[in-house]
Amino acid sequence: MAAQPSYPTDFRDVTVVGALTLPTSIAPLPDGRVLIAEQWNARVRLVVDGQIGATDPVLTVPNVNTSGNERGLLALAVDPAWPARPYLYAYYDFSSGTTRAVYLTRYTGVGDLADASSSNLTFDAASALHLLTTIPDAASNHNGGCLRFAQDGTLFVSNGDDASRCAAQIVNDFRGKILHLEVDQLPAGPGTASLADLVPPGNPFSGQGPIAELVWAIGLRNPFRFHIDPNDGALFIADVGESTQEEWDRVASGGLNLGWPFYEGDFHVTVVSGCTEPGGFVSLPPIRSFDRTALSSASGMSAGIYKSRPGAAKRWPAEYNGDYFYAEYYQGWVVRVKGSGSAWSVAPQVPGQASATNWATGLDSPVDFQIAPDGSWYYLSQLGGELHKIEYTGIVTGVPATSSSFGGLRARFATPPQRKR
Q: How many CB atoms lie within 10 A of CB 415?
């Protein structure tokens, strides 16, 4: 039996729905309904008014490869222009005949697109527009698998190194990268987009090959979960470690190198079998890391930057706005940090907090986090098969700021400090 979650005073854990089968990803709709991906049966479930909708599932993604613990339907994202653009994006391992790859596919929704209380919503598998179809999937692990939309409507995608270390440093290779895509000019489905259709202006590796044109950051091992700061557009990436450290990186501009396989967290790997460390190698240091050598299993998760809407019924106190939270899948703890740029440190302990370091403990296999429209925080318990909310039950005074300095990822950002060897 899983441990019971422990939170600071005036916070509580609420189970929204259960009986999910290995859920992996949350995709809230603007009207408050929630879509949930299930990894191995490739179903998309719809949550309406706190329960699974009468139309169930709303989509079963075809040809999903589940031959391995880390394969399957890994991520969902809803188009930010929904319902005008009623699209759902799915990231999954594909297998059909002799073809095996990681796919990014867009499906079109039909039915009640903006009715918060309606279960009349489906996604037609025949509407599939395949955006990416050639991401290698030779290994059954290190697929990455996270989709997040930026405020300018571009889409960020995380790809793992497919257990091929050296590939993470090859710019014109999908593996071990964060991709940055333009998707709002694509035609209606079905069909397959060309890579050239997906290139947004301002990507950092222009002219270095058709794959490189889509790359935003390199040098990652398995960035299974990341979030985008709603205030300035920086990416906060949880990159799962191999044997020494878990790490969390803040990427505020394109073209940066996160160091894998020559760095794991703050640990410099001096010899990497099969890979030669290039001269003048430059790598972005993590904002947080922890030593995992004493643990049999570890997998760092990103929980995101907290920011609630003014007047949201379950919003958290204003002192939480702008704080970054990260979690650990197997240990079930959550850490809250404050900072800016490359300097982030554990927030001061608050009443009822489990320890000076851990803001919360006892979460069961937290695999994805999203802010809910009411200001609470959704998270998925993968092994528990449940969607939860972390709610604040105290009295919130004042109104959080509504302005944001984030003008889109095409704006200029200051480059964080780098490390060089």
A: 14
The whole-number pLDDT of residue 398 equals 64
Secondary structure (DSSP) of 181-200: E--TTPPPSSEE--GGGGPP
Closest CA to 12 of 394, 390, 396, 395: 390
Could you tell me which residues are beta bridge partners of residue 89? Answer: 77, 106
Distance CA 142, CA 137 (A): 9
Amino acid at the residue 117: S
Under 8 Å CB-to-CB from 231, ≥6 apart: which residues?
A: 305, 307, 322, 404, 405, 406
HSE-CB for 84 with a 13 A CA cutoff: 3
Distance CA 190, CA 397 (A): 49
Q: How far apart are CA 81 and CA 213, in angstroms?
A: 25
pLDDT value of residue 2: 60
Rounded Cα distance between 20 and 17, Å, is 8
Give pLDDT < 50 ranges for the chain: 1, 402-421
> Which tokens is 167 given?
């590939």
Burial per residue of 20-39, b for 16 or more beta-carbon CB atoms within 10 angstroms, e otherwise: bebbbbbbbbebebbbbbbb
Going by C-alpha positions, the residue among 311, 324, 322, 329 that lies closest to residue 381 is: 329
pLDDT number for residue 274: 87
Pairing status of strand 121-123 against strand 99-111? antiparallel
Task: Give yes or no for a contact between 173 and 251, defined as CB atoms under 8 angstroms apart.
Answer: no
pLDDT at 413: 36
Pairing of strands 129-136, 191-192: parallel
* DSSP per-residue codes, 285-322: PPSEEEE-TT-S---EEEEEE----TT-TTPPPGGGTT
Residue 313 pairs in a beta bridge with none
Q: Please tell me the predicted confidence (pLDDT) of residue 399.
A: 56
Tokens of 115: 């009715």
pLDDT in the model for residue 77:
98
Distances (CA, A) of 117 to 19, 77, 138, 205, 281: 21, 20, 42, 45, 54
